[in-house]
Amino acid sequence: MRAIHLGLMGCGTVGTGVARLLLEKQALIQARTGIALILRRVADPDHERDRGIAFAPDTFIRDARQIIDDPGVDVVIEMIGGETIAKELILAAIKKGKHVVTANKALLATQGNAIFQAAVDAGVEVAYEASVGGCIPIIKSLREALVANDIGAMVGILNGTSNYILTKITEEGIDFESALGQAQANGFAEADPTLDVEGIDAAHKLAIITALAYGMPINFKDIYIEGISKITPLDIQFARDFGYCIKLLAVCKYHGGRVEARVHPAMIPEGNILSSVIGALNAVTVSGHAVGDLFFSGQGVGMLPTASAVLSDIVDIARNKCFGGVGRLPHTAFQPDAVQAIPIMPMTDIITHYYFRFAVHDRPGVLAAISGILGKNGISIKSVQQKGRKTGDYVPIVMLTHHAREADVQSALRQIDTLDVVGPEPVLIRIEDDIQTA
Q1: Domain range holding 183?
Q2: Are residues 367 and 321 in the same domain?
Q3: One domain, residues 189 and 233
């Protein structure tokens, strides 16, 4: 039987899951692949923590560079994370002619173009299925299953932490800080949750799948990013009144030479399939011209779901190496000479529907003043609610708009904010009525 020797760098939560699957499901993997995957080395500075795994003698080491320098290691599995030491180790492994598997979406979103080029130059592969959507096979689908499809749009819930928090606010009526505390207590949020709740993690993932869908270099820096920390139970209740729920969405759409790529809270119709994605689940909808609308959903976080995606990459590389298929798939789904620098649209050019909530003094003429400014900026009002949920000296006015351009909306809000009858900063939440429903 053919054998592939593996070196695992980082044995935290996901790394431990990878080791468990490799050791506990060895017979199943061999039965399906005809290849023995041998965990030759595991590097982690923490030797004291009980991981519930009986490693073979001398397997566990402290210095990851020993894995890279070991000529017996065929594939390096990077589970360290971050954008510094992980990058150095991955590039060093590539230089040594070793294949790499990683789940490091932050690194790939910012340095992926250089890493993939280094791998091409060295004749090795970098696999990264677990970097987007946990156990959801979205990368494999874009690189292989949808190869003959023009991708019109992809819309996803790509961060389980934010989805868990919004689910708690929606179901329990608690505020953001309380919901975040529950997420941290249940292990769904880090002590510093910034990457998750401010939309950065979802944008990392969106940058990767946008490149795969449209044959463009990975472009994280031009993605518009907005998080969920300002979402309140009041806005979630108003959304319900209008028949919507609020999710942190990652949106990309193709516009013939330009691409939308944005991450922000959005209201979606309660009948939309993404509205049913609750808790820490991830989901992605993909619209292909040949297949129509597809829906992928699954666990976006967790030891074994993420480890399962890592194992699929390991097996792909093992098969390619054993059966002479190394390099058969380009890293970002398109042949290098077909990759084009497609620009990401400025957020000011985006056209969608909008939800506004204004805190105003309860005086005659307030609604007319706000409506007049919106009208002068070409923004048409679809619906208005003025309810008596008084907060201090203010009452809320809530409006939904027809299609409007982001630049016009921002201009109008700046003007409205100067009115002496308007209180704290107006709330804006974009509405995605046009995404697929099934």
Answers
A1: 138-299
A2: no
A3: yes
Claim to verify: residue 236 and residue 329 sit in the same structural domain: no
CB-based burial label for 417 (10 Å; 0-12, 13-18, 19+)? middle
Identify the bridge partners of residue 262 per DSSP, sorted by sequence position: 224, 251
Q: Which of 53, 59, 46 is nearest to 21 (CA)?
A: 53
Q: Which residues of 36-67 are buried (b: 16+ CB within 10 A; e: fewer)?
A: ebebbbbbbeeeeeebebeeeeebbbeebeeb
The residues annotated as belonging to the active site are: 205
- How many distinct structural domains can be found in the chain? 3
In a domain, 248, yes or no: yes
Q: Which residue has the tokens 């929606």?
A: 170
Q: What is the rounded CA–CA span in Å between residue 125 and residue 119?
A: 6
Q: Which two tokens stand for residue 338?
A: 């077909």
What does the alpha-carbon distance between residue 95 and residue 149 come to, in Å, rounded to a whole number? 35
Q: Check: CB of residue 33 under 8 Å from CB of residue 1.
A: no
Render each residue's pLDDT in the chain as its tens digit; 438 residues.
899 999 999 999 999 999 999 999 999 999 999 999 999 999 999 887 888 888 888 899 999 999 999 999 999 999 999 999 999 999 999 999 999 999 999 999 999 999 999 999 999 999 999 999 999 999 999 999 999 999 999 999 999 999 999 999 999 999 999 999 999 998 888 889 999 999 999 999 999 999 999 999 999 999 999 999 999 999 999 999 999 999 999 999 999 899 999 999 999 999 999 999 999 999 999 999 999 999 999 998 889 999 999 999 999 999 999 999 899 999 999 999 999 999 999 999 999 999 999 999 888 889 999 999 999 999 999 999 876 666 667 889 999 999 999 999 999 999 999 999 898 889 999 999 876 543
Give the side-chain half-sphere CA count within 13 A for 360.
25
Specify whether 367 is located in the same domain as 391. yes
Instruction: Tell me the one-letter amino acid at 87.
Output: K
Residues belonging to the chain: 438
Q: What is the dihedral of CA 148, 151, 155, 157, to 10 degrees?
A: 30
**Both 240 and 324 in a single domain?**
no
**Residue 409: which CATH number?**
3.30.70.260
Residues 369 and 309 in one domain: no
Which phi and psi (to 5°) does residue 175 adopt?
A: -85, 175
Q: Are residues 129 and 143 in the same domain?
A: no
- CA dihedral sign, ordered 10, 12, 15, 20: positive
The residue type of 83 is E
Same domain membership, residue 142 and residue 123: no
